[in-house]
Design brief:
single chain, 4-stranded antiparallel beta sheet, 5% strand, flat
Length: 531
């Protein structure tokens, strides 16, 4: 019995139309290569170059051959939604498209589909790229993104990367030949695509709030960062200035007019102002625009509610060394925006702006406790404390400020506080800290126990006593052995500090106190602690 292609097409109508939708998203009529690919696929359909071979219903596998320059095999796996072609081209090739269209002709008009697809062609990307202006580059992005992200289309979170890469691949085909222009083109396209994608995602808050979006953004940020550093390390052409002006506008748009992930948007904004936008005139212009946003909000309805413009202005007070304005602006600091202020402090520190860094970090200090213990997720606190301690370590703090800092850190700041106390040779306070936040002997060693033993061994005796009794209270022979090991360390510390008589009285008291614990008494004998 022969294969009925019409019945096959109707049986798998959903699969065929689904693949055709992916073709529409993946191939753009404004891209010369894509238009040529679809034209050749349509030619194959009209000339009946697609030959349907075997179909295995149990596996849902269809074997076809496309009579091209040389016969090419295309295999459809309907059950797993996979199409395999043995030609060397990745993604959509003319052979896959021609087989899909050959099946589709049994459902609807291929000619109507082709006309509808070609009607989406706005402008020719090649013609836009031939005249190098920032307006043309933006028009290229708009043309590609309008095809990939039509108005009203909801996007699943797993499609972020696919759509981004698809757009970037099409635009990269028009990369300038001149090497000095290439990093700027790549950066411009990265930022413009990201801005368009973010704007589209406003329609779906759940997509933007999804963890996958954070992962996606962080990957893009790394790529953007590489292009930024590449541009920063080279001299600029005078002809590139208009492109940097438009980049400045797009980066501002991403910060001011988009929603969610404010810290990531600010990091992107800081990256550009720290590395690329280095002219004083440019900083003054940006400051003027932001002041207008803040003072006349009714004239700028697109400004997002989650953007603290007054906080962002601090960046330009740092860049323009307007320290009085910075100091005055810090009176309104709030715990909710603390991560933003810490980003500014890190920015000031990286630029060796010591005055600004000092002002910011000391203004943040009273809010740290609430932020760490109530705003941050527990899993982030340790890394956060370790990171910001490096910033505070670079400025001078009074004793009161230091106490406030480390009390805010709490248990997460034990190690940095330990290092600070060791630096100040405050060994007894070091011991008190570790009695307040008990851990283990091995952790004490990472926090500087050896240094305390070298300089003030007598101060460590209460610590050894505490940890030895903790082992004894577990009441197992293994723990008794560990307690004896700790007491041996204590004995060494007592001998080193000239407190041998104290040690003899102490260990005798321990023996008497726990005389009913036979296993412990045996371990004490083996340990030879009185010798």
């Amino acid at each position: 019995m022969g294969l009925s292609v019409s019945s096959l097409a109707h049986d798998h109508e959903h699969f065929i139309k689904q693949q055709l939708e992916q073709i529409e998203r993946g191939l753009h009529p404004s891209v010369t290569e894509d238009e040529e690919l679809v034209r050749r696929a349509l030619f194959a359909v009209r000339n009946k170059s697609v030959v349907f071979g075997r179909y295995i219903p149990t596996n849902g596998v269809l074997y076809t051959t496309v009579q091209d320059v040389r016969p090419t095999e295309v295999v459809f796996h309907f059950h797993s939604n996979i199409i395999v072609c043995n030609c060397p081209q990745d993604g959509w090739c003319r052979h896959k498209v021609s087989v899909i269209l050959s099946l589709y002709q049994y459902l609807e008009s291929v000619q109507d589909w082709a006309a509808k697809w070609r009607s989406k062609k706005g402008v020719n990307l090649h013609l836009l790229a031939s005249e190098r202006t920032p307006e043309n580059w933006l028009a290229m992005v708009n043309e590609v993104m309008s095809h990939l992200l039509p108005v009203g289309r909801q996007m699943d979170h797993y499609l972020f990367s696919t759509i981004y890469e698809n757009a970037y691949t099409k635009l990269r085909k028009h990369l300038p030949f001149e090497r000095e222009w290439q990093p700027l083109y790549n950066l411009f396209m990265e930022i413009a695509i990201l801005n368009k994608l973010w704007q589209h995602l406003f329609q779906s808050e759940s997509a933007l709030k999804n963890d996958y979006f954070e992962y996606f953004f962080d990957r893009r940020f790394e790529t953007i960062q590489n292009y930024v550093y590449e541009i920063a390390g080279k001299s600029r052409l005078f002809a590139t200035d208009p492109f940097f002006d438009v980049l400045q506008e797009i980066v501002r748009e991403l910060l001011v007019e988009r929603k969610f992930h404010i810290s990531r948007r600010l990091n992107l904004y800081l990256l550009f102002w720290d590395t690329i936008f280095i002219e004083k005139r440019r900083a003054e212009d940006e400051q003027t625009i932001l002041l207008e946003y803040m003072n006349k909000p009714e004239d700028h309805p697109n400004v997002s509610e989650d953007v603290p413009i007054s906080t962002v202005l601090n960046l330009f007070y740092i860049l323009l060394k307007q320290y009085d304005k910075l100091k005055a602006n810090l009176h309104s600091i709030g715990t909710a925006q603390l991560e933003v202020y810490l980003g500014l402090a890190k920015f000031a520190s990286s630029r060796n702006e010591e005055v600004a860094s000092d002002l910011l970090l000391k203004a943040i200090l009273p809010h740290l406790d609430t932020f760490i213990n109530h705003h941050l997720q527990p899993s982030r606190r340790q890394a956060f404390v370790r990171r910001i301690h490096l910033l505070y370590d670079a400025i001078e703090l009074s004793e009161q400020e230091e106490l406030l800092l480390y009390s805010s850190f709490g248990v997460h700041g034990v190690q940095p506080y330990s290092n600070s106390l060791l630096k100040a040779e405050r060994y007894e306070e070091w011991v008190a800290l570790h009695l307040l936040f008990p851990s283990s002997i091995s952790y004490l060693e990472t926090c500087g126990l050896k240094e305390v033993l070298d300089h003030d061994p007598g101060a460590t005796l209460p610590l050894y006593h505490y940890y030895a009794l903790e082992e004894v209270n577990q009441k197992s022979r293994m723990n008794y052995k560990q307690a004896v090991r700790i007491w041996k360390m204590m004995k060494s510390a007592a001998k080193k500090s000239g407190k041998t008589n104290f040690w003899v009285d102490y260990i005798q008291t321990v023996r008497n106190q726990y005389k009913r614990l036979r296993a412990l008494q045996e371990e004490l004998e083996k340990g030879n602690l009185l010798a």
